[in-house]
Write a structure and sequence with these properties.
Bound molecules: adenosine-5'-triphosphate, magnesium ion
CATH architecture of the largest domain: 2-Layer Sandwich
Number of helices: 7
CATH superfamily of the largest domain: Histidine kinase-like ATPase, C-terminal domain
Number of strands: 7
Shape: globular
Radius of gyration: 22 Å
Order of helices and strands: HHHEHEEHEEHHEE
Strand content: 15-25%
Number of domains: 2
CATH topology of the largest domain: Heat Shock Protein 90
Oligomer: single chain
Structural class: alpha+beta
Length: 255
């Protein structure tokens, strides 16, 4: 067996590391570009459709159908929201990387924040009609937190539960008070995670589970949620009994 002496320069190791970083960078760029490009196709076709409808209405060939106009505009809004979320997440990752994430703390009624997020996800999933979001929460519950960033964590956790349960079903959400902290739990009956994956997801940006690759996403939501929760003195926990056995995500914040 050949062994390298401690004094010999590990050039090939360095070259290998540089190559790996290059590869990761390329893969990252390709994923981000893909994720940004995906919403553009429906955006473009809806815009074309709207122009066609307007032209027909102008020529007096067909009256403008206000209901379908509204549906088209809702599609545009959804796709723009998706792109906005991705860019916001990426900016936050870069802020955290440069240690520039500052919290704007205020008293926040997290119960009403949770209801608002659930309402948004209920609307977003209504069209497909597969998911049933079931919420248990007290009428109000105050914490000291950065409202926008907690909203972002809630959106990410509920979004994951919806996305990774492609067959739909119930998503159970519970907000509760414990001594000195509040706990928000999201439990889905989806694809679940294997034990080795639980230890990895959300620890580094761009890490995704083996079976996540067929789903949209770049692997930053959980990482950000975890770091932002920790900045608040809280934490995010992930549990799963295994593949296809659903996942439970928990956000714990001090009061
Ligand atoms: N509810 C869940 N069920 C199963 N796997 C999950 C769930 N939530 C997170 N994961 C796993 O953790 C990984 C990281 O989650 P994260 O939210 O950071 O990324 P993502 O959803 O893939 O992309 P995005 O950055 O758009 O949120 C996912 O890719 C997936 O493998
Ligand atoms: Mg996600």
């Amino acid at each position: 067996m050949q062994s390298r002496s401690a004094a010999s320069p590990p050039e090939s190791d360095l070259a290998e590391a540089v190559r790996r970083v290059e590869e990761e960078k390329e893969e990252f760029l390709s994923i981000v570009a893909h994720e940004l490009k995906t919403p553009l196709t429906p955006l473009k076709s809806v815009a074309q459709l709207l122009r066609l409808r307007l032209a027909r209405a102008r020529r007096g060939e067909r009256e403008l159908d206000l209901d379908s106009l509204e549906t088209n505009l809702a599609t545009i809004e959804r796709q723009v929201d998706r792109m906005d979320r991705l860019v916001t997440d990426l900016l936050e990752v870069s802020r955290i990387g440069r240690d520039r994430l500052e919290l704007i703390l205020e008293r926040v009624d997290i119960a009403s924040l949770v209801r608002d997020v659930v309402q948004r996800w209920t609307e977003a999933t209504a069209e497909e009609g597969r998911h049933r979001l079931e919420l248990e929460a007290p009428p109000s519950l105050e914490v000291t937190a950065d409202r926008q960033r907690v909203d972002q964590i809630l959106v990410n956790l509920v979004g994951n539960a919806v996305k990774y349960s492609p067959h739909g079903g119930a998503v159970h959400l519970r907000l509760e008070e414990r001594p000195g902290e509040v706990v928000f739990t999201v439990r889905d009956g989806g694809i679940g995670l294997a034990e080795d994956e639980i230890a990895l997801v959300g620890r580094e940006p761009f890490v995704r589970g083996r079976r996540a690759h067929g789903f949209a996403g770049v692997g930053v939501g959980l990482y950000l949620s975890r770091l932002v929760a920790e900045r608040h003195g809280g934490r995010v926990e992930i549990e799963s009994e295994g593949e296809d056995k659903g996942t439970t995500a928990r956000l714990i914040l001090p009061r």
